[in-house]
Design brief:
The complex is a heterodimer of chains A (about 120) and B (about 110).
Chain A (H helix, E strand, L loop, with lengths): L3 E4 L2 E4 L5 E7 L6 E7 L6 E7 L5 E2 L8 E7 L2 E6 L8 E7 L9 E2 L3 E5 L1
Parallel strand pairs in A: 2-11
Antiparallel strand pairs in A: 1-3, 3-8, 4-5, 4-9, 5-6, 7-8, 9-10, 9-11
Chain B lengths: L3 E3 L4 E4 L4 E7 L6 E7 L6 E6 L3 E5 L2 E6 L4 E6 L8 E8 L7 E2 L3 E6 L1
Parallel strand pairs in B: 2-11
Antiparallel strand pairs in B: 1-3, 3-8, 4-5, 4-9, 6-7, 7-8, 9-10, 9-11
The chains are: A mainly beta (about 120), B mainly beta (about 110).
Chain lengths: ~120, ~110
C-alpha cells in the first residue's frame, strides 16, 4: 500500500522550454501532496505543498510563477517548470500522505531533470 | 530557523554489526520523527516513525526518541550490505506540520 508514482522518471530539455512532471497516488487518495527538490549530496528541500482543489503553498524563495503546481484530483498533482534554465537541473520528488497525518509522507520515485 | 542535524558520515560497519545513526533537532515543539532510507539516485523510503519518548522496534530497526535532549536515533541490528544507503532523519511539529529533513548519514556495510 501507499504507492506513489511519478512520470517521467527522467527528462532532458532545452533552456527556455517548459517541462511537466506528474505525481500520482496509486492506491490511496491524497488530499495533500508535496514537491521537493534535491541537489547532489544535499538533503530534500520542500518547494511547495499542494492541496486538492486549492492553490499551492510555496516555500520562501520558490518562484510560484516559475514552478506551477496543479492538484486537480485526489490522486494527481503536477509540477510544471516553466522557462527552464540549467540551474533548474535537479532531482524533483513528490510525496503524498494517505491519511490525516500530513507528516507521514510516502515518496514517488523522483524525476531527474536536466536542462541543457 | 528549524534545523535537523546529522553526522554526514560515511559510517562504516562490518556485516552483522549494529549500526547507530544519530539525529538532533532544534525545534522543541517537534512532535513527529521519521527515518527514511535513500539509495543513491533513488527517492526516500519511509522505514520508521516515532512519536513518543522511548524505543520503537520494527524487525532489525529500533528508533529511539528523547525529547528532553532533542535527540532521535536509529539502530540497525545485524547490518547487511543491502542496508548501505543514506539515512535521512525528518522532524515535524505535528500531524499537520511539514517535514524538516537532515542532510543524511551515509552508511556503508562491509561484507
Amino acid at each position: 500500500g501507499a504507492v506513489v508514482s511519478q512520470h517521467p522518471s527522467w527528462v532532458i530539455c532545452k533552456s527556455g522550454t517548459s517541462v511537466k512532471i506528474e505525481c500520482r497516488s496509486l492506491d490511496f487518495q491524497a488530499t495533500t501532496m508535496f514537491w521537493y527538490r534535491q541537489f547532489p549530496k544535499q538533503s530534500l528541500m520542500l518547494m511547495a505543498t499542494s492541496n486538492e482543489g486549492s492553490k499551492a503553498t510555496y516555500e520562501q524563495g520558490v518562484e510560484k510563477d516559475k514552478f506551477l503546481i496543479n492538484h486537480a484530483s485526489l490522486t494527481l498533482s503536477t509540477l510544471t517548470v516553466t522557462s527552464a534554465h540549467p540551474e533548474d537541473s535537479s532531482f524533483y520528488i513528490c510525496s503524498a500522505s494517505p491519511g490525516g497525518r500530513v507528516d507521514e509522507q510516502y515518496f514517488g520515485p523522483g524525476t531527474r531533470l536536466t536542462v541543457t | 530557523q528549524k534545523e535537523v542535524e546529522q553526522n554526514s558520515g560515511p559510517l562504516s560497519v562490518p556485516e552483522g554489526a549494529i549500526a547507530s545513526l544519530n539525529c538532533t533537532y532544534s525545534d522543541r515543539v517537534s512532535q513527529s520523527f521519521f527515518w527514511y532510507r535513500q539509495y543513491s539516485g533513488k527517492s526516500p523510503e519511509l522505514i520508521m516513525s516515532i512519536y513518543s519518548n522511548g524505543d520503537k522496534e520494527d524487525g532489525r530497526f529500533t528508533a529511539q526518541l528523547n525529547k528532553a535532549s532533542q535527540y532521535v536515533s536509529l539502530l540497525i541490528r545485524d547490518s547487511q550490505p543491502s542496508d548501505s544507503a543514506t539515512y535521512l532523519c525528518a522532524v515535524s511539529q505535528g500531524s499537520q506540520g511539514n517535514l524538516i529533513f537532515g542532510k543524511g548519514t551515509k552508511l556503508s556495510v562491509k561484507p
